[in-house]
Amino acid sequence: MRMVAEASFQVRSNALEAARMTVLSQVRKAIPSDEAYFFKVVHYPHHILRKHAMAGVHKAERLQKGMRLAFGKPDARAAQIRRGDVIMFMRVNEQHLEAAKYCMKLAKLKIPYMTRIDVVRLDGTEDEEGA
């Protein structure tokens, strides 16, 4: 089972972490500890997002330099994802497939862009779950 991007976008590191934590917490509840599963977040947030903070208080224009030296300070990190990239995937046994679908559906809510969940069986056939 995999989460696939339907558009190109950037997703912040805190959204990826929230999706990861959601999947792992739900999987630990649904799948017994002696059963095997594999879960991986494929993309790592390498891209640094910068912010040019402007003071927005009364008479703050004397403190500002306008757009001079406006490179900005590091604010957050993001992963750059292209259309069709796999964001995260999970491998489970067939008896735990419904629980894995539910986990990935909850993780999909944490990613703020259009994604879809594909179920890929080991024999190569593919089922699509809605976007």
Please characterize this protein's 3D structure.
- The protein is α+β, with helices and mostly antiparallel strands.
- The chain has one domain: Aldehyde Oxidoreductase, domain 3 (Alpha-Beta Complex), CATH 3.90.1170.
- It is 24% helix and 32% strand.
- It is built from two helices and eight strands, in the order E-E-H-E-E-E-E-H-E-E.
- The chain has helices at residues 13-30, 97-110, and strands spanning 2-5, 9-12, 38-41, 47-51, 73-81, 86-91, 115-120, 126-129.
- Strand 7 (115-120) and strand 8 form a beta hairpin.
- Helix 1 (13-30) packs antiparallel against helix 2.
- The radius of gyration is 20 Å and the shape is elongated.
- 18% of the residues are buried.
- The model has no long low-confidence stretch (mean pLDDT 85).
- It comes from Korarchaeum cryptofilum (strain OPF8).
- GO terms for molecular function: structural constituent of ribosome.
- This is Ribosomal protein L16.
- Keywords: Ribonucleoprotein, Ribosomal protein.
- Belongs to the universal ribosomal protein uL16 family.
Summary tags:
elongated; alpha+beta; 131 residues; Ribosomal protein L16; Aldehyde Oxidoreductase, domain 3; three-stranded antiparallel β-sheet; five-stranded antiparallel β-sheet; 24% helix; 2 helices; structural constituent of ribosome; single chain; ribonucleoprotein
Low-confidence stretches: none
Strand-residue proportion = 25-35%
Fraction of helical residues: 10-25%
Total count of domains? 1
GO molecular function, one term: structural constituent of ribosome
Family: Belongs to the universal ribosomal protein uL16 family.
Protein name: Ribosomal protein L16
Pfam families: Ribosomal_L16 (PF00252)
